[in-house]
Amino acid sequence: MSLEIEKPAKQLIKPKLKKSIIDCDIHHNVRDIKDIFPYLPKNYREQIELWGTQLPDFPFMNGGLRGRMNNSYPPSGGNAGSDLQFMREQHLDPYNVEYGILTGEFPWQYASQQVDYAAALCSAYNDWTVEYWLEKDSRLRGSILIPIQDPNLAVKEIHRLGNHPGMVQVLAYGGARMPYGQRFYHPIYEACAQYGLPFTIHVGMEGVGINSAPTGVGYPSYYIEYRALRPQVYMAHLASFIFEGVFEFFPTFKVVLLEAGVFWVPPYLWRLDQDWKGLRHQTPWVKKPPSEYFKSNVYIGSQPIEETPNIDAFTSMLEWTHAKDSLLFCSDYPHWDYDSPLLSFPKLEGDLWEHIFYENARKLYKLPSRSAKQGGVVS
């Protein structure tokens, strides 16, 4: 029984999944920054043509081929994830993806001090996503990118697209100037709750541009360190959401945590519950143990899920993570550490597979029940 992911160089597989799935982390990309020019104000188009994007960049080398699977670059040219037809052939159809949640490849503006420019880039990317992806494949759903640096501009973008049937969540990145539970961000969560949109955090932009250092002791030297330390960023955000009272103020508000691993959650919740018992007088508005807020308001993406020493440990960790209700399948296509829907999990007992690969996402994103007529190959 293997928990290994499919090797990047492997050729396209033949369809094997009989049941369709919902993939909650698919990275679509532009072929070139000029793809979003039709949606950008003229002054920003001219600025980019003259000076480049002038956006801060990720400082580490990644894995694979420029961070992507070696075979994920489309034959037509351009970036990995930039060709819808190739994505269909390589991922959506073979793996019977009934719905795919697009999370994009456009994080740099989240670390820029130019908030108006960041807002314009987010809006342009959102409009491009709607026209060139959502309107061309009914399986796809989008994420509303927002300028998290300025809650007023972020709320404006949520109001602009919150009722769009193809947009199913608001997306931000782990990199931030302060923990996400703080009151500075609350107008964003009020708007998310108003439209029934989850607030999804994807790893990225930690320690870049205006954002705080990626660890509590500063900057690591290598990507492997940065990657291993991702959970501490999510630990900070999760504790902030809970102890700042976000889930009490906005009871229907949901948070999704993507791409920082999974099995750090159980011991962290145990610790939060233990500390809350002795210190809850400091935050009297937190009326329940922290683990209860996690179970009612937080979802976590499966990629990259940790390999355990044996299947018994894996099964126990799934149970302690509340996977039946909280875990969402994520492939992370087309990144180098892509998780194949066939190989990323061992055989799951009972209806656990159904919940992880379909039902949890269907419930969260208010999607239809499985239909044999949708989502690629069904045999």
Brief characterization of the structure:
The protein has 379 residues and is of the alpha/beta class.
Secondary structure: elements and pairs:
Blueprint: E1 21-26, H1 42-51, H2 84-92, E2 97-102, H3 115-134, E3 140-145, H4 151-161, E4 167-173, H5 186-195, E5 199-202, H6 223-228, H7 230-243, H8 246-249, E6 255-258, H9 265-279, H10 290-297, E7 298-301, H11 311-320, H12 323-326, E8 327-328, H13 352-365
Helix pairs in contact: 4-5
Domain Amidohydrolase-related: 23-367
Protein name: Amidohydrolase family protein
Pfam families: Amidohydro_2
The number of distinct helices, counting runs of at least 4 residues, comes to 13
How much β-strand is present in the residues?
5-15%
Report the radius of gyration as a whole number of Å: 20 Å
Order of helical and strand elements:
EHHEHEHEHEHHHEHHEHHEH
Number of strands: 8
> Structural class of the helices, strands and pairings?
alpha/beta
Tally of domains:
1
CATH superfamily: Metal-dependent hydrolases
Q: Can you tell me the overall shape?
A: globular
Based on the coordinates given, report the CATH architecture: Alpha-Beta Barrel
Distance between the termini: 23 Å
Output the strand order for the largest sheet.
1-2-3-4-5-6-7-8
CATH class category label: Alpha Beta
The average pLDDT is 93
Report the sheet with the most strands, covering strand number, pairing sense and barrel closure.
8 strands, parallel
Organism: Paenibacillus alginolyticus
Keywords: Lyase
Domain Amidohydrolase-related: 23-367
Pfam families: Amidohydro_2 (PF04909)
